[in-house]
Amino acid sequence: MKHEVCKLDELPVGQMRSVMIDNVAVVVVHAPDGRLRALRDTCSHFGAQLSRGTLRQMVVGDTHGSYALSADTFVLQCPWHGYEYNIDNGQCPADPEHARVKSYQVTVQDGAVLVDR
Amino acid sequence: MIKVEPVSKAASEAAVSTLLIDTDVHEYLHAATELLPYLDPVWQKYMTETRWDKSRISQHAYGTPTQFHGTRAEWLLPDGTMGTDLEQMRTMLFGEEHVTHAILNGFFHVSAMRGNYEFATALASAYNDWQVEKWLVPEPRLFGSVHVVARDPQQAAREIDRVAEHPQIAQVFLPVVSDCEYGDPFYRPIFKAAAKHGLSIAFHHGQETHSGVGYPRYFVEWHTLAPPQGSIAQLVSIITNGVFDEFPELHLVLLETGVAWVPWLMWRLDQQYREYRREIPWVKRLPSLHMRDNVRVSTQPMGDLKTRDFVSLVNMVESDRIFVFATDFPHYDADSLGNVLPESIPTALRNKIMYENALESYPRLAHVKPPT
Fold it and tell me: How many beta-carbon contacts under 8 Å exist across A and B?
């Protein structure tokens, strides 16, 4: 079921906001590249509010000592212990099998941001 | 998660009449001069003229706990040495201890030498040739190590290339030298050469290994802490610096570190990796997954773990592939099969530790088959 959480112009690029949908905390993310994503706003580790964390490009590197910012993967980093969650699927890149939060579909309709939960 | 429970003595006795691979046996030189025939004349002259002996490699201040020079009373040789006689090893290790195959680790840690690296390299080569001639050629049940000077990784890689040709060479031996952090890319040629030849890497402490506070006042402190702490530090370095991501087939065997720390490290390092993955993005898997696939830990010293405790430990590490049997022959604190793996250990797990895990971890032992 789709829920209107805010107007698009209320969520600038690079920002996120925490909303409650049916008593569930959800963080809606407007990534710097324009994509809109939503995750459960509760870290799978100790339950911190992810919306108080940091949205950033994921740091990647395939060989020792190499660091780069991913062009297409953004992570939301927990404000407590630094767990990262891929905003596209809610998986923690370090431990996708065990550390993950639920992700939700986000659409824009008539200037409104809708989260499907 | 594997599920193992202690079983009755009768149910597990069938496992005894099979392979028993000992991953930690120490052969010794009587004296460094035994290497003279294997040295280039320039180094023969150097060793003779300077009266160089192996005590110059590294020595800590502690004595041994008994009057038998660091070995068991029954294993002390008439000349006061230990581990210098192949015939005695046959009798004691393959006979009385029921070992069927053994990996030699020596106790000649040239990587611990401070300076004089050209001579150290010559010593490593001489030792390797001595090991092959004196131990491996006459005894096919023995497998050997390539000893290298880790502080010169390019030369070490060349020595691995040279010695690896011998079919009984099973691993590259690296002493746990506290100011060498083996995960550093500086040392990567050693791991690359080992992987190229299908050799495992063994870590073992020596007198050069520090505890977390360096050299404590007493041996009891050092011997409690230095072997596990030194090897754990090296293992964390290896994992976080991406050695297993670069060489996914490489096996690392940690010798004489004890066993009970393994689940703690898995939990702690996994947690830290979840928090700091972005600092080491070249590491692509949880450290505990690398440990289960690439790391083996010898059982000696098993300590006072009861069967049920050990079975619980195996469950905690969620793998029956980690532990490999070792005696530490001929040292005073050696373990015997009956003490390490009592009959109440389930047969399947016992077989894993007695030989299956070793066969998986040392590609050079692939031809060794259990009796049918």
Answer: 40
Residue predicted with more confidence, B307 or A20:
A20
Backbone angles phi, psi at A59, to 5 degrees: -80, 125
**Amino acid of residue B278:** R
Contacts 24+ apart (CB under 8 A), B260-267: B260/B303, B260/B305, B260/B313, B261/B228, B261/B232, B262/B291, B262/B297, B262/B313, B262/B317, B262/B322, B263/B313, B263/B316, B263/B317, B265/B232, B265/B235, B265/B236, B265/B291, B266/B291, B266/B317
Nearest Cα to B22, choosing from B293, B358, B323, B367? B358
The predicted-structure confidence for B248-304, as pLDDT tens digits, reads as follows 999 999 999 999 999 999 999 999 999 999 999 999 999 999 999 999 999 999 988
Q: Which residues of A touch B185 (CB under 8 A)?
A: 64-65
Q: Nearest-CA residue of chain B relative to A94?
A: B274
Output the six-digit token pair for A27.
Answer: 């963080």
Phi, psi (rounded to 5 degrees) for B369: -120, 145
CA distance B239 to A94: 14
Regarding beta strands A112-116 and A2-7, do their DSSP bridges make them parallel or antiparallel, or are they unpaired? antiparallel
Of B242, B246, B286, the CB nearest to A95: B286
pLDDT at B5: 56
Q: Where are the alpha helices (DSSP H) in B251-346?
A: 261-276, 287-294, 307-317, 337-340
User: With contact defined as beta carbons under 8 Å apart, do A95 and A81 qualify?
Assistant: no
Instruction: Kindly provide the ipTM of the predicted complex, given to two decimals.
Output: 0.96
Total-model pTM? 0.95
